[in-house]
Amino acid sequence: MSPKQTNLLQGTLDLLILKAIGDGEFHGLGISRRIELITQGTFQVKPGSLFPALHRLEEAGWLSSFWGDSENNRRAKFYRLTKTGRSQLEVETEQWSTIALAMTNALKAR
Amino acid sequence: MRVFSRVSAVLKNIFRKRQVERSLDEEVRAYVDMVTDERIAAGTPAVEARRTALVDAGGFEQVKQAVRDDRTGTNLERLWQDARFGMRQLRRNPGFTVTAILTLALSIGANTAIFSIVNALLLKSLPYPHPERVGRFIRASREKWRRMSGTT
Question: Which ipTM value was assigned to this complex?
Answer without folding.
Answer: 0.80
